[in-house]
Write a structure and sequence with these properties.
The chain has about 230 residues and is α/β, with parallel strands linked by helices. It contains five helices and nine strands, in the order βββαβαβαβαβββα. The protein has helices at about 40-45, 65-75, 100-115, 125-130, 190-195, and strands spanning about 1-5, 20-30, 35, 50-55, 85-90, 120-125, 150, 165-175, 185-190. An eight-stranded mixed beta barrel has the order 1-2-4-5-6-7-8-9, surrounded by four helices. α2 links the parallel β4 and β5. It is globular. About 35% of the residues are buried. Mean pLDDT is about 90; it is low at about 200-225.
Length: about 230
């Protein structure tokens, strides 16, 4: 297994001998929120030689087209490559459980994949999925065909019908020397990590080759809140 981390308030500094090989950073939430730390964090991961990924937090109250466009615009404005798959975070406790929510979630997955022209991953926890989504998933919703990043370590219940996740959170809110903020620690399978860490994209293990989203240009995003 390969170690990685995510941290909302990380300031971009880490020890040179950090064991973490990859990091995921929150980019956006809903229609109008972007993380003020996102660009700095992604640049820092690049400078430390770590693989990088971005995620958006799904809100049922959002407009799918608007929310995904915001996510795409923010990620595409980076001047560093984003090697890891985009992730949509399903943990909206303000949402109303039901088919309408699940349809909105699936539409978000489809819109992300269309916008980026790449498959995305899904992040959720058993405690959330089993209450808000699982009872309402229909055959037309192909969530379980996507790779899963499973939130929250045991004894949280397994998520839906995915089987084994490719990335799993193993520790929450831990204090690691050399980091300014608490981290969530993650473990990825060797197979998943190899898909994105290889140096030669033409090699067979790189069929899902690195995403090189290096579009540049300022993005005019109003920061409404940062919570």
């Amino acid at each position: 297994m390969k170690q990685g981390f995510d941290s909302r308030w990380w300031d971009g500094k880490m020890p040179a001998d950090s064991p973490y090989l990859f990091g995921y950073c929150k980019a956006t939430e809903g229609n109008d929120f972007t993380s003020q730390q996102f660009g700095l964090q992604m640049l820092a991961l690049q400078n430390y030689g770590k693989l990088k990924g971005a995620f958006m937090f799904h809100r049922q109250a959002s407009d799918v087209i608007v929310a995904v466009k915001l996510f795409h615009d923010v990620v595409s404005a980076l001047d560093v490559p984003v090697e890891l798959p985009n992730v949509v975070d399903f943990e909206d406790c303000r949402a109303t459980p039901g088919l309408r929510l699940v349809d909105h979630m699936w539409a978000t997955v489809q819109e992300i994949e269309q916008k980026f022209q790449q498959e995305c991953m899904e992040y959720t926890a058993g405690w959330w999925w089993d209450r808000w989504a699982k009872p309402y998933v229909q055959d037309r919703h192909e969530f379980y065909k996507k790779d899963l990043w499973e939130a929250d370590p045991p004894p949280d219940t397994p998520c839906g019908e995915w089987g084994d996740p490719v990335v799993r959170q193993v520790k929450l809110d831990i204090i690691v020397p050399g980091f300014n903020a608490a981290l969530d620690e993650n473990e990825a399978t060797d197979e998943w990590y190899k898909l994105y860490a290889c140096d030669k994209p033409e090699e067979p293990e790189c069929e899902r080759a690195k995403a090189t989203l290096t579009y540049s240009g300022p993005v005019d995003v109003e920061v409404i809140r940062d919570d």
